[in-house]
Amino acid sequence: MVVQLFNASNCSRADGFEALSAASSAADWIQLQPPQRTLPLLSEAALPAGSGFVIPSGGSTGGQGFCLQPRSNLDASAQATARWLLGIGIQPQRSVLLNPLPLHHISGLMPWWRSRVWGVQHLPLEPAWLKQPALMWARIDALADPVRVPRLLSVVPTQLIRLMEDSAGLACLKSCAVIWVGGAGLNSSCRAAARRERLNLAPCYGATETTAMVTALPPQDFLEGMDGCGDGLGDVEIQLDADGGLMVRTQRLAVGRWNGSQDSAPEVLRDGEGWWRSGDLARWLPGQGASGMGRSLQLIGRCDAVINSGGETLFLEALEERMSDLFSGLPIQMFLLVGIPDAVWGEKLVGLARLNHQLTEAEGELLMIVLQERCLNLPMIERPKAWLQCPELAVNTSGKWQRRQWVWWCQKIL
After folding, report:
1. In 3D, which of 125, 124, 114 has the Cα closest to residue 90?
2. Is residue 216 classed as helix, strand or coil in its secondary structure?
3. pTM for the full model?
4. Contact (CB, 8 A) for 169 and 163
5. How does pLDDT run across 271-283, given as a tens digit for each residue?
6. What angle do CA 154, 11, 104 make, to 5 degrees?
7. Which CA distances in Å does 65 have to 6, 7, 156, 164?
8. Cβ(247)–Cβ(275) under 8 Å?
9. 57 touches 107 (CB < 8 A)
10. Element (H, E) at 167
11. Can you tell me the distance from the alpha carbon of 207 to that of 250, in angstroms, rounded to the nearest whole number?
């Protein structure tokens, strides 16, 4: 069995997918490496028979890890998405897939894989095009007639908001038959603006563990005012436990999840009845859309210390542990990371710090700048957007953080 590490961080999106296509023809299993991370190769003995991908996952079950996804799961996910498209009157075999998402992410990997399964064009959208939407519009506008060849776009909310703020970006969005948007919840103002512009948004929910899409709301339902992220795709069962915890059962669940340590074996995700607990809290909204959908899943929040910021899942406790090393030697008694609701980021990462009492006000302000500078060693998405001095910062009597309390505190300050 051939296992290959794959990292395309130093090339264009188009070149990266071309290299990935070549690698997938030569190796049985491909381990995708996240940018700015060097992790060991999963041993061949830990991999199941066949071929597939070892995919980085924010994971809802705790900590950074990798999901083992056989190619058959990717095929099944692509086929389920195709059936969903047929159900709303779009022929997937006549479409073009537009993809601004990173290939080491399940959200970026799957548009490419769908194009292979459906036999259609896949157009990677370069980061520079998103910063200058006129460049993106020039490339997209040159494609075949969108009535004849429907354009299917996958984005995270941060990208959607930025494109909506630019005339060329808005033209790109308006030309799309479906705009799948996932990774974080859409705020009410963004939903309202998208409806005013008649954008074919399809809010969706998925995870690396489930090989991407679990639910999706048809665009016509979204435009008629239906909220949530739709009902389950045809090959998915969804259940909420007594506390509202989201449970998913599907044949395309990852065969295992590895924590990135050479000393650890992948863990099984299913319980005895085949259910996977996502770590999300959710509820069902009644259906009222054009498609006749009976219900729509609405995500309420996370069950643990995890936030979604800019479409990325951040594990706050693991990130705090890494920052502790960066802050070694600084006059800080304790610090805490929280996610503050934000129109652009979904949840904005903010750091709170309780400083040593001996520091003057000027020294405290300077230390906040030092914290920001130390965080430049982290990937951009993991750098707090602000650091705040919080003299009263403390754990509760049980020695645990009550993060919600400190979110409220931040909201009063910011």
Report:
1. 114
2. strand
3. 0.79
4. yes
5. 999 999 998 888 9
6. 45
7. 16, 16, 21, 33
8. yes
9. no
10. helix 167-174
11. 12
